[in-house]
Amino acid sequence: MTATLTSTPAVVRTIAEIRAAIRAYRAEAGATASVGFVPTMGFLHEGHASLIGRSAQDNGLTVLSIFVNPLQFGPNEDFERYPRDEARDLDVAARAGADIVFMPSVSEMYPTSAATQITVSGVTERLCGASRPGHFDGVGIVVTKLFNIVQPDRAYFGLKDAQQVAVVERMVADLNQPVQIVPCPIVREADGLAMSSRNVYLSADERREALVISRTLAKVPAWIDSGMNAAQLTAAVREGISSSPIADIDYVETLTYPALQPPAPDAPVSVSDGRIIVAAAVRFGRTRLIDNILISLPEAQPL
Ligand code: AMP
């Protein structure tokens, strides 16, 4: 067995401390300084670790934030019971290569309720934007606040939340936020289930049934090659997921990416559509899971 040397990241909980730590790093590193930032809600898994690892490769300093943002949860969602485990998170953060972990309290981030809103239109019309009203406004405000606090050169987001990537990219472009967004591929369990902090909610039976999502999405490239149009593709994915008796579909949609608009309805999905996403949100018991496949045409290869 080989021992891996990892250094424990510095843990900071206040905005003043994180600003001071980054200022000190920039002063020391000078012109070569580069700060990578990975915003998360914690309960870290290998998906998060992949973003941290990528940031550590690209940058001199990697800042990880862990903050369960109340503003992006609806009134009947799982804010209160969202899984939290600081000690385990610090272990994953250290192994993945984070230098600083920023873990603010809700009152540190929102000393007063913010009067300012960030609403990104268009890309939020469908998918989670439609089924979780207000969710992306909550994401917009917290990501903007975190960008202003950390002032990173690059920020790393997972394509597991592909709509979130599209929303953040659009917000950064519209507001000239001085940060480069780096989208990262979906990390899956060995059997294909997309990793998610919410997977711990699943019973053994639900966990087994949930595989129907990734198994069905994996068939999408072949279905596109066979000449299906967007409506047929959506119907085929719906049917595949419905083969599980306990899958309760919230949405299945086939859209262009990153605009997240419907492609031409009748023609087969084709090169003129650019990138296509097939995205699904499905409930198993009380747990809502999301997954997607992003296809770059004409090869019909998953990204
Ligand atoms: P969360 O803690 O769920 O808010 O996720 C924080 C970041 O990790 C987001 O950019 C997510 O897209 C990303 N992420 C979550 N799960 C995965 C995964 N399975 N693969 C890649 N990135 C992920």
UniProtKB/TrEMBL annotation:
Q: Name one GO biological process term.
A: pantothenate biosynthetic process
Give residues annotated as binding beta-alanine: Q72
* Keyword entries, A-Z: ATP-binding, Cytoplasm, Ligase, Nucleotide-binding, Pantothenate biosynthesis
Q: Which residues are responsible for catalysis?
A: H48
EC category name:
ligase
The name on file for this protein is Pantothenate synthetase
Under which EC number(s) is this enzyme classified?
Answer: 6.3.2.1
Q: In which pathway does it act?
A: Cofactor biosynthesis; (R)-pantothenate biosynthesis; (R)-pantothenate from (R)-pantoate and beta-alanine: step 1/1
Q: Which GO terms describe its molecular function?
A: ATP binding; pantoate-beta-alanine ligase activity
* Complexes and interactors: Homodimer.
Principal localization? cytoplasm
What else does the entry mention about this protein?
The reaction proceeds by a bi uni uni bi ping pong mechanism.
Q: Name one GO cellular component term.
A: cytosol
Q: Which residues does the record give as (R)-pantoate binding sites? A: Q72, Q164
Q: Which residues bind ATP?
A: 41-48, 158-161, 187, 195-198
In its UniProt entry, the species of origin is given as Cohnella ginsengisoli
- Pfam families from the entry? Pantoate_ligase
Q: Where in the cell is it found?
A: Cytoplasm
Superkingdom to which the source organism belongs: Bacteria
Its UniProt entry gives the catalysed reaction(s) as: (R)-pantoate + beta-alanine + ATP = (R)-pantothenate + AMP + diphosphate + H(+)
Task: Name the HAMAP family on file.
Answer: PanC
Which family is it part of?
Answer: Belongs to the pantothenate synthetase family.
- State the protein's purpose: Catalyzes the condensation of pantoate with beta-alanine in an ATP-dependent reaction via a pantoyl-adenylate intermediate.
